[in-house]
Amino acid sequence: MMMGYSSESDIDYEQPQYKRKKLSDPQVCIVCQFSDARSTGYDIVIAPKSSSSSSSPNTMTIRPALRLKTGHDMFAFCGLGSTLYLFDYQPSTSAYRLDLSPHLLASGPTVELGIDDLTHVSCMRHPKHLHQAIPTPDGTKILVFSQVIKFNEDTGLAGGNNFELYDPSTDTWLLLPGIQDDCFDEDHCWARIMDYAFVDDTTFFIQMARRNSRKSKKTIFCLNLDTIARGWQRQDNYFGSHSVCMRRSFGRFHVIEETLCVTPHHIYDLRRRRRRRRDEESLVVGPWAPDFRESAAADSVWLVDGNKVGGKYTFCTLMAGIRRRTREPKLVVALHQFDVACYREHEEELSNSILPGERFDIFPLGHNKCREFDPIHFFTISN
User: Fold this and answer.
1) For residue 23, is pLDDT > 50?
2) Does the first or last residue of the chain, that is N or C, have fewer Cβ atoms within 10 Å of its Cβ?
């Protein structure tokens, strides 16, 4: 599996094993923030969903399709179709879009872009703290929000500028309601969204905790985009749980079949947890990369394919790091099949319903003594 690079070799001239194909082929876009001996910025890697296009069955070297040098690292990324959107945290600056379609056919050198090479879109109305962006389940809009929210010290209520919905088809923003709840006392005016997801086609779920207290009680809120006027609803009993207790908060997670929560490391069944009165039902699904300079675990997970009727889903976990010897960046991708129908029918353990699939390693080229290589965003490219 080792590519045989020497520690001082210039990997810019290595021949990629994988060449990007036509738009109809299934591909994923992975955005990684990097820092090396020459520059900092974002690598935009376009890769297949499997290693079958590579000359080596479990390893591929690949040139990033694009390298974006923005001058700062305050963007939240979100992909819809074949377009990548970038949102700055300040409304007074800018938001952009980048059409990936022209770059899906390319197989030559990495294209370097500056901020002036991006297309402007309208800016959100209000600033955000540690802003995040997530697509709506129908793939038509983008929800941008603050991951850290300030509550009024006197009233205990949050302001109303932390959530906005962007519609690319009209290039317009809709300001969403703020959280009007006194769940946080005046001694802890800052709260953090620890976990978030769309739990169905229209309902956005967040789980919050006081920012400066790791052991503080978590509180769940939900906002239905079909009934925005009703505002955020506090959930004191979410499928029998006061909170969705996860071993580690990763931010975004996925929900399938109402009560199955999928993170980069575990799958939690809230229904079984309630019935058995156990702390959790989980299964470690993340890949392992022993040659990283620092210990690393899966950073991200996304749903590659799902069939609710058939009850079968495919998930992909992603991990990124820097190799010990060569200081090259490395991405580790692993696919997992989850047969929910079988799990529900036979009430099996989760471990008997997860089928580990293909794992392959991606080596992005063009870096010299990389210091940082962190995944920021990923999505499946579609027409």
Assistant:
1) no
2) C
